[in-house]
Amino acid sequence: MNNDYIISLIQQDKRVDERKFDEMREIEIETNISKNAEGSARCKMGDTEVMVGIKMDIGEPYPDNPDEGTIIVTAELLPLASPVFELGPPGPQATELARIVDRGIRESKCLDFKKLCIKKGEKVWMVFIDIYPLNDDGNLIDASVLATLAALKNAKIPKVENDAVVFGEFTNKKLELNKLPITFTFGKIGNKILLDLNSKEESVIDSRLSISVNEGNIHAMQKGGDKVITMEEVEQMVDMAIKKEKELRSLIK
Amino acid sequence: MAGYDKRFSGRKFDEMREIEAKVGVIKRADGSALFRMGDTIAIAAVYGPRELHPRFLQNPETGILRCNYDMTSFSVPERKRPGPNRRGVEISLVTEKALLPVLELKQFPNAVVDVFVEIVQANAGTRCAGISAAALALAHAGIPMKDLVSAVSVGKVSGKVLIDLDKEEEDVDDATDIPIAMTGRKQEITLLQLDGNLAKKDLMEAIKLAKQGCEKINKIQQKALKDAYKSVKNE
Asked: Is there a contact between B28 and A135 if contact means CB atoms under 8 Å apart?
């Protein structure tokens, strides 16, 4: 499909897959997809599919937060998921994806880091959140956030003996999430604002804004793309995110 | 351990774990497949034939095959650091060699066929599940092939020759593990590795078991491919 055609459709208030501008694709979330993970989930958003696994280990806290555990988010843009992804260490796109997910979790304090402390100054839980897209048809950010929340919500804390994790054995205790901050990514094409862009739309994007919201509060934002956005457009996108957050939150079980 | 009379899993010595095979699991790929053996799940995606970069690797006589095997960090009990390691590099290489004999890449000079294998959940036998998935994904991508390839591990645990070792069996001290891949029709061997300690008689018995196992896997692979075309017909 030709880029000019996609843009001309959007100028006529139409999208290539006939969605409304503020309409998300169908979302399907499946949890516990991998037995050896403390928690895991797969999120399908249209043809986009992302897998997230949670692993936990005991480590030392950072000196400036001796009574807090930590999260470590990585994203691997597997060449399995798209003809344009290549083998090799995480590049800028993978790093940005991981950091946007990280900030949504961290800044909303949906995971209480203090509860991840085992012994102040010595031992804390390190929660590894590993993101693996399986099929990239756009908007990996929002799909990754949903998969991450679902995986965290279902994660079981591993068994500990003599201050060390017994790998492969879990307790019945779950990680507690006290909020579910949802991320919405908008794209601006010409003067139009679209939600949940597929990969064809992403290829003609002028600018992009991701907004992490929880009950009307904004916890993280990231602007992407090569062109500008206005204050009015930011407001419009924030309003739309706040309007839609409940609906998406209900999908995380 | 004296006398392994009954397997931990309750399986018979010549019984494989439950197998699931499906093609078309990754939309953007030219071909893809999922292959599950018990708790081991492999996904494979094929891209190509496509232009090969860097160019000095191009071969004007034939297309080439490039395989990459990788495990997700959460597929194993102790988190695996994402990215390549020595084990993965070796398995990628033997996967490539296991598939190459059935491929006809002469008609794609200077091109590459990329195969990416990802282990989503591991409970022994991951390279074999990966090869069975990759062969299916190649067929699904329409890459010219003389035959399919099927793979299974066989071995000996506490005196018993058996098929499709699970993690518990693999971890027994005296376990010998022999991953084997074979072509479908002639049952010629395309992958053979061995770790352990084994007499010739047991090796031959194990290969025989692998033949039986691969024959079953081949049928399941063929069914998965036929099922995919069935659904196209009904659309």
From this structure: yes
Asked whether B94 and B117 are in contact (CB, 8 A), the reply is no
Q: Which residue in A54, A80, A156 has the most chain B C-beta atoms within 10 A of its own C-beta, making it the best mutation to test that interface?
A: A80
Going by the DSSP 8-state scheme, the letter that residue A114 receives in this structure is: G
Q: Which domain holds residue B84?
A: 19-234
Residue A13 falls within a domain, yes or no? no
Confirm or reject contact between A135 and chain B (CB < 8 A).
yes
Q: Which residues contact A139 (CB under 8 A, 6 or more apart)?
A: A45, A48, A185, A196, A197, A198, A202
Say if the Cβ atoms of A53 and B74 lie within 8 Å: yes
The total number of structural domains that make up chain B: 1
ipTM: 0.91
pLDDT in tens, B111-169: 999 999 999 999 999 999 999 999 999 999 999 999 999 999 999 999 999 999 999 99
Domain count, chain A: 1
What tokens appear for B67 in the block?
């395989």
> Could you tell me the pLDDT band of residue B5, with boundaries at 50, 70 and 90?
confident
Q: Is A97 touching B (CB cutoff 8 A)?
A: no
Say yes or no for a CB contact (<8 Å) between B74 and A55. yes
